[in-house]
Amino acid sequence: MKNLNICIIGGGNLGRAIAEGFLKAGLPAGKLVITRRRPHLLEDLTKKGVRVESDNAAAVIGADLVILAVKPYQAEGVLQGIRSSLIPGQMLASLMTGVSLESLKSWLPETVIPFRVMPNTAIALQESMTCISAPDCNDEQKEVIQELFETLGKVIYINEELMAAATVLGACGIAFALRFIRAATQGGIEIGFGAEVAQEIVAQTVKGATELILQTGHHPEREIDKVTTPKGITISGLNAMEHQGFSSALIQGLLVSYNKINNG
């Protein structure tokens, strides 16, 4: 990874998060270029040694990997703007929701290899769940991209038709999980804790629950069974939540977000 020259087109929230994640993972700042129309907004990265550019076409020169972190509606214009600066063998990773590999290939030179990459904002903390689709890459390129993004969390390769679902479950899922944390914190305040203490308890509890699943591979219900006893307080609370539609509301939220991606 440390020998890879990386250019991030788009220094907004996601582009910045990726840059910060790479720096924490040990990528030398001198190997990283990031662009933004108003470069002064990335002054903190400049101070760390990252090159900040306002000219996308100039930024991609010499890059082994170009990461596109702009809005989907900007895709064609941005790619047309850098097309003449791209060279054979460069890889391009698109983080744009809803922009297909077919569209990317129509805007790119044939010799540039496109990837669709869907991380989430935990990438800045090296805790992303990143889904990748790249049927046209070779094994070496696949390994390079996987190793790179594994420095920022977990990585899986999926078929492109699952990208919309991956966006909802992995990227939007950050917001859904945080909404649970907020609601549980509010409940904690109701039963007596101060806001900061309630949030700390809830956040650590959620982190622990997550690690139980990730480290054991158990189905969630297996771990739930360990803390539910006959006529106990846990099962009473769970049943009350289900009566209010907890699981169905979450599933419906996922479906609404998924349908919005597919139907616009």
UniProtKB/TrEMBL annotation:
What SUPFAM superfamilies does the entry give?
Answer: 6-phosphogluconate dehydrogenase C-terminal domain-like, NAD(P)-binding Rossmann-fold domains
Q: Which reaction does it catalyse?
A: L-proline + NADP(+) = (S)-1-pyrroline-5-carboxylate + NADPH + 2 H(+); L-proline + NAD(+) = (S)-1-pyrroline-5-carboxylate + NADH + 2 H(+)
Q: Which residues form the Pyrroline-5-carboxylate reductase catalytic N-terminal domain?
A: 6-97
Q: Name one GO molecular function term.
A: pyrroline-5-carboxylate reductase activity
Task: List, for all copies, the residue spans of the domain called Pyrroline-5-carboxylate reductase dimerisation.
Answer: 160-260
Biochemical pathway: Amino-acid biosynthesis; L-proline biosynthesis; L-proline from L-glutamate 5-semialdehyde: step 1/1
Q: Where are the transmembrane segments?
A: none
Superkingdom: Bacteria
- Secretion signal, residue range per the UniProt entry: none
Compartments reported by the entry: Cytoplasm
Which sites bind NADPH?
Answer: 56
**Keyword terms:** Amino-acid biosynthesis, Cytoplasm, NADP, Oxidoreductase, Proline biosynthesis
Q: One GO CC annotation, please?
A: cytoplasm
Residues reported in the UniProt entry to bind NADP(+):
9-14, 69-72
Q: What does the record give as the function of this protein?
A: Catalyzes the reduction of 1-pyrroline-5-carboxylate (PCA) to L-proline.
Family that this chain belongs to: Belongs to the pyrroline-5-carboxylate reductase family.
Q: Which HAMAP family match?
A: P5C_reductase
Q: What is this protein called?
A: Pyrroline-5-carboxylate reductase
